Structures are given as C-alpha cells and as structure tokens.
Amino acid sequence: MKNNRLFRNVDQKVIGGVAAGLADYFALDVVLVRVLFVLAFFVPIPFHVLLFYIILWIVMPSNKRVQETNWNANS
To answer: In whole angstroms, what is the distance from residue 71 CA to residue 59 CA?
Structure first.
C-alpha cells in the first residue's frame, strides 16, 4: 500500500472522494471501487450501502486536511 492513512481523495472525487480514497488506500483502480459501490447498491438492502458511504464521507478526513496537518507538524 502506498498510503498508510485512509482519507477522502478530493482531487479525484465524483461525489465525495470516498471511493477514490479507498482506492488509494488499497492500491486499487478507482473505477473498480466505484463499480463495486454501484453494484452493492443493487443488493436487496441498498440503504446500508448508501448509509455506509455517507458515514465514510463524514468520518474520513480529506487529503487536503491531511496534507495541511502534516505540513504544520513538520514546521
């Protein structure tokens, strides 16, 4: 894994950057993660996937905040 922290990648976001952040963290293609989210939405209980995405959107810090925090810590 190239990143050791999980964050939302707002540079490659479509909605919130959650899928792009997960793809960066697990070193996967972002399209694959987005397709998995869409496919998971069509399982019998799609509300759980939507709720999971929204929770991750709220909980995961953006990569901008992570970079600012690291820059301030290194100064």
So the answer is: 21
Per-residue pLDDT in tens (0 to 9) along the chain, 75 residues: 454 788 888 888 888 889 998 998 899 999 999 999 888 888 877 678 888 889 999 998 888 765 555 556 565
The pTM of the full predicted model, rounded to 2 decimals, is 0.73
* Domain of residue 47, residue span: 18-70
How many Å is the Cα radius of gyration of the chain? 13
Which amino acid makes up residue 14?
V
Cβ atoms 22, 6 nearer than 8 A: yes
Residue 13, domain member (yes or no): no
Within a domain: 65: yes
In a domain, 1, yes or no: no
